[in-house]
Protein backbone atom coordinates (compact mmCIF):
# COMPACT_ATOMS: atom_id res chain seq x y z
CA UNK A 1 0.00 0.00 0.00
CA UNK A 2 1.43 3.43 -0.90
CA UNK A 3 1.54 6.23 1.60
CA UNK A 4 -0.32 9.43 0.71
CA UNK A 5 1.84 12.50 0.25
CA UNK A 6 2.18 14.95 3.10
CA UNK A 7 -0.07 17.99 2.71
CA UNK A 8 -0.30 21.45 4.23
CA UNK A 9 -3.95 20.92 5.26
CA UNK A 10 -4.57 22.89 8.45
CA UNK A 11 -3.93 26.36 9.82
CA UNK A 12 -0.56 28.15 9.64
CA UNK A 13 0.87 31.50 10.74
CA UNK A 14 3.74 33.01 8.87
CA UNK A 15 5.46 35.94 7.26
CA UNK A 16 5.89 36.97 3.66
CA UNK A 17 8.89 39.08 2.67
CA UNK A 18 8.75 41.35 -0.38
CA UNK A 19 10.44 44.61 -1.35
CA UNK A 20 12.22 44.85 2.02
CA UNK A 21 8.91 44.54 3.91
CA UNK A 22 7.74 41.68 6.12
CA UNK A 23 3.99 41.06 6.54
CA UNK A 24 2.35 38.60 8.94
CA UNK A 25 -0.48 36.32 7.82
CA UNK A 26 -2.63 33.37 8.84
CA UNK A 27 -3.61 30.82 6.20
CA UNK A 28 -5.92 27.83 6.40
CA UNK A 29 -5.42 25.12 3.78
CA UNK A 30 -8.67 23.15 3.56
CA UNK A 31 -8.72 19.40 2.76
CA UNK A 32 -10.67 20.15 -0.45
CA UNK A 33 -7.78 22.17 -1.94
CA UNK A 34 -9.16 25.62 -1.10
CA UNK A 35 -7.51 28.17 1.17
CA UNK A 36 -8.30 31.33 3.11
CA UNK A 37 -5.70 33.92 4.13
CA UNK A 38 -6.00 36.86 6.53
CA UNK A 39 -3.51 39.70 7.09
CA UNK A 40 -3.76 43.03 8.88
CA UNK A 41 -4.40 44.72 5.52
CA UNK A 42 -6.28 42.12 3.49
CA UNK A 43 -8.24 38.89 3.17
CA UNK A 44 -8.04 36.38 0.37
CA UNK A 45 -9.05 33.03 -1.02
CA UNK A 46 -7.44 30.59 -3.37
CA UNK A 47 -6.42 27.02 -3.95
CA UNK A 48 -3.53 24.67 -3.32
CA UNK A 49 -2.31 21.32 -4.63
CA UNK A 50 0.38 18.78 -3.81
CA UNK A 51 3.12 18.62 -6.46
CA UNK A 52 5.39 16.01 -4.87
CA UNK A 53 6.50 14.54 -1.57
CA UNK A 54 6.32 17.55 0.74
CA UNK A 55 6.05 19.97 -2.19
CA UNK A 56 2.94 22.01 -3.00
CA UNK A 57 1.83 25.13 -4.81
CA UNK A 58 -0.77 27.65 -3.87
CA UNK A 59 -2.50 30.53 -5.58
CA UNK A 60 -4.57 33.26 -4.00
CA UNK A 61 -6.18 36.61 -4.55
CA UNK A 62 -6.00 39.04 -1.64
CA UNK A 63 -8.38 42.00 -1.53
CA UNK A 64 -7.17 44.99 0.49
CA UNK A 65 -9.49 45.94 3.34
CA UNK A 66 -11.61 49.02 2.56
CA UNK A 67 -10.00 50.96 5.43
CA UNK A 68 -6.50 50.40 3.99
CA UNK A 69 -4.92 52.71 1.44
CA UNK A 70 -2.24 50.56 -0.15
CA UNK A 71 0.05 52.44 -2.55
CA UNK A 72 2.34 50.38 -4.77
CA UNK A 73 6.03 51.24 -5.13
CA UNK A 74 5.08 52.65 -8.55
CA UNK A 75 2.77 55.20 -6.87
CA UNK A 76 -0.62 53.72 -7.77
CA UNK A 77 -3.39 52.71 -5.37
CA UNK A 78 -3.61 48.93 -5.11
CA UNK A 79 -6.93 47.07 -4.94
CA UNK A 80 -5.80 43.45 -4.81
CA UNK A 81 -2.84 41.11 -5.23
CA UNK A 82 -2.60 37.78 -7.04
CA UNK A 83 0.05 35.52 -5.51
CA UNK A 84 1.55 32.26 -6.79
CA UNK A 85 3.88 30.32 -4.45
CA UNK A 86 5.87 27.10 -4.81
CA UNK A 87 6.37 25.71 -1.30
CA UNK A 88 7.95 22.82 0.54
CA UNK A 89 7.02 21.30 3.88
CA UNK A 90 9.94 21.02 6.27
CA UNK A 91 8.76 18.27 8.58
CA UNK A 92 5.15 18.52 9.69
CA UNK A 93 5.27 21.92 11.37
CA UNK A 94 6.98 24.33 8.94
CA UNK A 95 6.91 25.31 5.28
CA UNK A 96 8.88 27.74 3.15
CA UNK A 97 8.12 29.03 -0.31
CA UNK A 98 8.95 31.45 -3.10
CA UNK A 99 6.87 33.02 -5.79
CA UNK A 100 5.41 36.10 -7.43
CA UNK A 101 3.00 38.75 -6.24
CA UNK A 102 1.23 40.81 -8.90
CA UNK A 103 -0.53 43.94 -7.65
CA UNK A 104 -3.63 45.20 -9.48
CA UNK A 105 -5.50 48.50 -9.40
CA UNK A 106 -9.27 48.80 -9.05
CA UNK A 107 -9.61 48.69 -12.87
CA UNK A 108 -7.75 45.30 -12.93
CA UNK A 109 -4.63 46.89 -14.46
CA UNK A 110 -1.33 45.37 -13.33
CA UNK A 111 0.48 48.15 -11.49
CA UNK A 112 3.39 46.25 -9.97
CA UNK A 113 4.95 42.81 -9.66
CA UNK A 114 7.52 41.53 -7.20
CA UNK A 115 9.15 38.40 -5.81
CA UNK A 116 7.89 37.03 -2.49
CA UNK A 117 9.31 34.58 0.05
CA UNK A 118 7.32 32.99 2.83
CA UNK A 119 8.00 31.05 5.99
CA UNK A 120 5.16 29.58 8.10
CA UNK A 121 4.54 27.35 11.10
CA UNK A 122 1.57 25.07 11.69
CA UNK A 123 -0.88 26.18 14.39
CA UNK A 124 -1.21 23.26 16.84
From TrEMBL:
UniProt-recorded name of the protein: Dehydrogenase
Lineage of producing organism: Bacteria, Bacillati, Actinomycetota, Actinomycetes, Kitasatosporales
Amino acid sequence: MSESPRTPAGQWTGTVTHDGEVDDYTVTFQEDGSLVVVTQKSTGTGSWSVTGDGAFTFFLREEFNTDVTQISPTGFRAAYIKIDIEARLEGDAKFTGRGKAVVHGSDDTVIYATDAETDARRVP
